[in-house]
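Q: Could you write out the predicted structure for this multi-component system? I'm mainly interested in how the pieces pack against one another.
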Amino acid sequence: MAVIDADDVSKRYGSVVALDRVDLTVESGEIFGFLGPNGAGKSTFINTLLDFVKPSQGTLSVFGNDCQRQGVRARSRIGVLPEGYAVFDRLTGRQHVEYAIDAKDAADDPVTVLDRVGIREAADRKAGGYSKGMAQRLVLGMALVGEPDLLILDEPTTGLDPNGAAEIREILREERERGATVFFSSHILEQVEAVCDRVAILQDGELVAVDTIAGLRESLGGGTKLVITPDEFDAGTLTAIRGVEGVETAVAVDETTIEVTCTNDAKMDVLVELNEAGVDVVNFRTEEASLEDMFVEYTGGGR
Amino acid sequence: MTWRAVARHDRRQTRGVRSVRLLLGLLAFVILAAAYVYPIDADDPVTTARFTGYVVGWLTTVVPVVGVMLGYDAVVSDRVSGAMRLTLSLPNGRRDLVLGKLASRAGLLTAVTLVALLGAGFLVVYPFGRLELPRSLAFVAVTVLFAVLWTGIGVAVSMAVATKQRALTAGFGILGLFILLWGQLADLVAIGLEAIGLADGGLPGPVRFLFSLTPGTAFERITRGFLDPASSVGGPWYLSEWVALAVFACWLVAPLGLAFRRFAGSDLA
């Protein structure tokens, strides 16, 4: 059964198109990563799910409840960590969680919740004095209240150090084990790669790919990455490589290394092309394409 | 029905705030001061029913100020800071949000009004006055509604705009217009009409009706017409206390209703 169902959703601000005909389905029980560079429209999409923003066109539903017309029913089964929130400065962490328990009509113990997100010792301090990372943990705690069937998290690891980010990922896995569906956005790829069953890539408001990580690799024709060290480097070399059939991206990492993603068959062609262009290859090796490479590929970030 | 959760949550944040205490203290002080002065100032007999016509003039000035000041930041400050996103991430609708905020703020004002009027009743009755319970209770009810009405106008302003600055400007604008300017405007029109020979000694009925459309005037008419035995409301039917009751009811619901329609349809992010 579809947990999130977005159908042909667009959002325009004047002449700016923030979301362009997005069709997306998230299935029950998966951890779904919503990827894209900053400004791609990830938060706009999440804000339409939460009815902070009205779509210009199209419909969205969560558990079959229309997000705009039955927003309260839709949100009664969702735990949310929104983008651009602020905590209630005058209230303590404990009071924040109590608010969530009250509004969701749940029976959780505030201290247990705060302990789980790692800020138990700050429970009775005013949240106005929390650091960004602590606030992020607090709001994640509010989202976890009442065992929601779906978690919608907008950049959940913002403001956290790598250890904190790992703790959050562990919580997401626990939530999936419990039976929840997790939908979260990120512009940091390794986080998505580490936990997600499926990912969607959003670019300039358009959905450019929805697949499993393995599937994305597959669609890149084997996803080979060539790491080449030429004897000398000039911009013309990149242009020449990009002209080879089967080459997806060619990026100069620094003045000494070129990274090329291409189909398996094109590997030799690239080397031949370099040879013909009069470039001596000092060294080269091949790697399996990482999600980062695919990301660059899909969003054109390296060109 | 989660507006109760929003109200409890808002009360937790509001009750300790110094400016809120100050405003509520001001209201209580004015009501008690009026009750203290009234037995000395007014003609006999001193009764709580006749006190209504005395205190209403004070209330039409102080209640609007306190109500608008309590309401104007209720919605917009959370909207600007982003805290509203936490409230609306929970299973609260925008209607719950507004109802909860209004209930919390109007509730505070109601509680203080009730206590202050109780104290005022005591000051009027003791030692030489007389208690007239039915009319006094009716007056308490109308005063509470008047407090809710003005908190509602404040909350309506708070819903309709996107910055705190604009909410404050609009709030003061409405107060200035209805409390300071409205009466003078009426005088000015009267002088003008007299100068061109269209009126003689006061405004013609229809123009007076126009100038009586403020919440304060409606409150005053209701008090003088229904509750204070010492005064009455004269003039054509459309200046009667019954029409004032209808005007009062409109002010109670229309600003909130219109502002909510705007708020409900707007993007918050």
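A: Regarding packing and overall arrangement: The two ends of chain B are 24 Å apart (CA to CA).
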